[in-house]
């Protein structure tokens, strides 16, 4: 069966009113609300966007798809199965605790138990703390995508998520589409802290004063996130000045938004690959290689 591969392009809008207002509060609208505050409950774009705001990964991709250090300041390959990460020693969680290698190991073990993430980490044998600020990721065999997978490791505050909640349920439980401590509470290392959440309506953040990355502080003190699923309504909110930033921009409105004086249209290449499977069992014509070639 032939696959048709395409490059997904993400379009974002930044409204000039944010700068005019002093850049203190950023009003954002996306097409989807995170299903939960638990970064391991659902593997989705909305969850990853939230994770980058409230947590920080070990490493992350730049726009040119090269990797840059984040909570891991450097790394090295020890042998065919072991990649060693050297962690920053000045990182605090929102709770005030210092992040250590044990938090990375705890987070890794939780990812291995997550229904949505465990398949990604199946090639890994374990994570192992070498000392307080050094951790090894050990694979079952030679594996070339260790650094790619490290972009999904957002260290969590193991003490904050340890113990039981008011209902006697484990705080570290990963509960799909249900109520849990982790789905409603967060302690990360990221630049923003969640201050208020109304599922499907509103999500508010404030800047974390003790954020480790002082080199790029930014000028946004608060973020108000509003999920707007309907594309036309999302664009209308931007053009009316109700929000400062939306994403994605529907393809049908690209020219309209680009021509608007209020906004800047930013197009970014995506790492996502979309596939179309041509089902030869259901469509007889797909058995003909000439048809598959024409589709491609």
TrEMBL record:
**Sorted UniProt keywords:** Signal, Transport
Q: Which GO terms describe its biological process?
A: peptide transport
User: Mind telling me what this protein is named?
Assistant: Solute-binding protein family 5 domain-containing protein
For this UniProt entry, which residues form the secretion signal?
1-20
Query: What is an example of a GO molecular function annotated in this UniProt entry?
Result: peptide transmembrane transporter activity
Q: Which Gene3D superfamilies match?
A: Dipeptide-binding Protein, Domain 1, Dipeptide-binding Protein, Domain 3, Periplasmic binding protein-like II
Q: What family is this protein classified in?
A: Belongs to the bacterial solute-binding protein 5 family.
* InterPro entries registered for this protein in UniProt: SBP_5, SBP_5_dom
Originating organism: Methyloceanibacter marginalis
Keyword Protein biosynthesis in the entry? The reply is no
Q: Residues in domain Solute-binding protein family?
A: 67-296
Q: Which domain of life is it from?
A: Bacteria
What the entry lists under Pfam families is as follows: SBP_bac_5
Q: Where in the cell is it found?
A: Periplasm
Coiled-coil segments on the chain, per record: none
């Amino acid at each position: 069966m032939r696959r048709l591969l395409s490059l997904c392009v993400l379009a974002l809008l930044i409204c000039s009113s944010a700068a005019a207002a002093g850049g203190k509060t950023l009003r954002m609208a996306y097409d989807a609300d995170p299903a939960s505050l638990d970064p391991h409950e659902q593997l989705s774009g909305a969850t990853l966007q939230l994770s980058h705001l409230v947590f920080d990964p070990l490493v992350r991709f730049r726009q040119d798809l090269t990797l840059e250090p984040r909570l891991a300041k450097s790394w090295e390959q020890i042998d065919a199965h072991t990649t060693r990460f050297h962690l920053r020693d000045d990182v605090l969680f929102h709770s005030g605790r210092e992040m250590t290698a044990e938090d990375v190991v705890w987070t890794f073990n939780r990812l291995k138990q997550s229904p949505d993430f465990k398949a990604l980490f199946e090639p890994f044998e374990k994570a192992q703390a070498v000392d307080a600020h050094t951790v090894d990721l050990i694979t079952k065999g030679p594996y070339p995508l260790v650094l790619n997978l490290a972009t999904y490791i957002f260290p969590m505050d193991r003490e904050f998520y340890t113990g039981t909640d008011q209902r006697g349920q484990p705080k570290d439980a990963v509960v799909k589409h249900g109520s849990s401590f982790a789905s409603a509470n967060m302690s990360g290392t990221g630049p923003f802290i969640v201050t208020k959440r109304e599922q499907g309506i509103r999500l508010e953040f404030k800047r974390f004063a003790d954020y480790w990355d002082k080199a790029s502080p930014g000028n946004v003190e608060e973020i108000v996130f509003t999920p707007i699923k309907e594309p036309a309504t999302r664009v209308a909110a931007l053009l009316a000045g109700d929000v400062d930033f939306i994403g994605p921009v529907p393809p049908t409105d690209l020219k309209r938004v680009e021509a608007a004086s209020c906004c800047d249209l930013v197009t970014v290449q995506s790492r996502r690959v979309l596939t179309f499977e041509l089902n030869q069992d259901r469509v007889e014509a797909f058995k003909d290689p000439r048809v598959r070639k024409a589709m491609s």
